[in-house]
C-alpha cells in the first residue's frame, strides 16, 4: 500500500511537491507505516462504504486513529478522579469546564470556582459547580487549579492560594504571556506549575494547545494535564520559548479562521446565496478541509493541487487569493501575534 501511495502521490503532486514533504512525514515512511501520518499510527482498512464516500479522492489514504475527530466527537473519556478548581470563571474557564463535562471527564460537582462577577458564578452554579468565596477556598477544594484570570491578575490570585498549596496540587496557568518564572515566583518554588496555551474550541472538544512545565512539576503533572486537554482536543509539550509562537498561531488562530469563514460567507452572499446557507457552507468547508489534513496527514499543498484542475474554477479563485497576498497575510498575522505575546511576557 505504501508503494501504491508513493506512486499515486508522485503522479498527482509531481516531484516539486514531493520535496515539500515534511521530515516528520518521512519518518512515518521509514517506520514502514502504511500511510503518510505523523505521529505514525497503524492504518486501518476502509470499509467498502467508506471507500465509496472518498471516491472523489481515490489518491488519498485516510488514517483512522485516536486522533480522528470523528472518534473524538462521540468518545467519552474515562472519569478523571480529580477535583478541578478555577481561579476566575470567565470565557476560557467556561469553555474548559463545559468541554471537560461534555466528555465525561468530570461532573459539575467536581468543579470549584471563584469569580468576583456574580453573573459568572451563577453560570457555573447552573451546571453544578460550587462557587467559593475566595481563591484559597477553591484551592482547598481542588487537585488541579486552573489560573484562568487575565494576565494582570495572575500574581494576585497565586499569592492568595500559595499558603494552601500542597504537593498534591497541579497549578495550570492559561494566562497569555505569564512566564514559568513569574508563575513560580508567585506560587512558590515547591509548586507544581504547568503553563498551557489553549484556544477556545475546547468548548467543542477541539482545542489546539501546547504546554511546558515549571517549578516542581513532573511527569505525573504532565500526564494529568495531557489527559485533561486530550479530552478536549490536542496538546503538545514544547520549550517555553516557543509558547509565544503557539499563542500567535493557535491561541489567536480561531479569530483568523472566524474572520475567514465570515469573509467566505460574504463572498457566497455576494454571489447570490442566502446568508444562512452561505455561512453553513463556509464553516463546513473549513471543518471538512481541516479533517482531510488531519486524517490523511497529506501536505495541504498537495490536497490543494488535487482539487485545482487546469483552467478550472478553483485555480481561478486561488489566483485571486494569491494576488491579494493571502499567504503573506496569514504568516504576518501569526508573526505579529507572536511578537505581541513576546512583548506582553516582558511587561
Ligand atoms: N479567550 C481566549 O481565547 C484565550 C485563549 C488562550 C488563553 N487565554 C487566557 O485565559 C485567561 C482568561 O481569559 P478569558 O478570555 O477567559 O478572560 P475573562 O473572560 O475576562 O475571564 C477572567 C475572569 O476572571 C475574573 N477575575 C478577575 N479578578 C479575579 C480574581 N482576583 N479572582 C478570581 N477571578 C477574577 C474576571 O472577573 P471580572 O470580569 O469581574 O474582572 C473574569 O470573570 C487569560 O489570562 C487569557 O490570556 C484566553
TrEMBL record:
It is found in: Cytoplasm. Pathway: Amino-acid biosynthesis; L-proline biosynthesis; L-proline from L-glutamate 5-semialdehyde: step 1/1. It holds the Pfam family P5CR_dimer. Its main location: cytoplasm. It catalyses: L-proline + NADP(+) = (S)-1-pyrroline-5-carboxylate + NADPH + 2 H(+); L-proline + NAD(+) = (S)-1-pyrroline-5-carboxylate + NADH + 2 H(+). It is an enzyme of class 1 (oxidoreductase). GO terms for cellular component: cytoplasm. Coiled coil: none annotated. The keyword Repeat does not apply. GO terms for biological process: L-proline biosynthetic process. Residues 83-177 form the Pyrroline-5-carboxylate reductase catalytic N-terminal domain. It comes from the Eukaryota. GO terms for molecular function: pyrroline-5-carboxylate reductase activity. Keywords: Amino-acid biosynthesis, Cytoplasm, NADP, Oxidoreductase, Proline biosynthesis. PANTHER family: PYRROLINE-5-CARBOXYLATE REDUCTASE, PYRROLINE-5-CARBOXYLATE REDUCTASE 3. NCBIfam families: proC. This is Pyrroline-5-carboxylate reductase. It comes from Chlamydomonas reinhardtii (Chlamydomonas smithii).
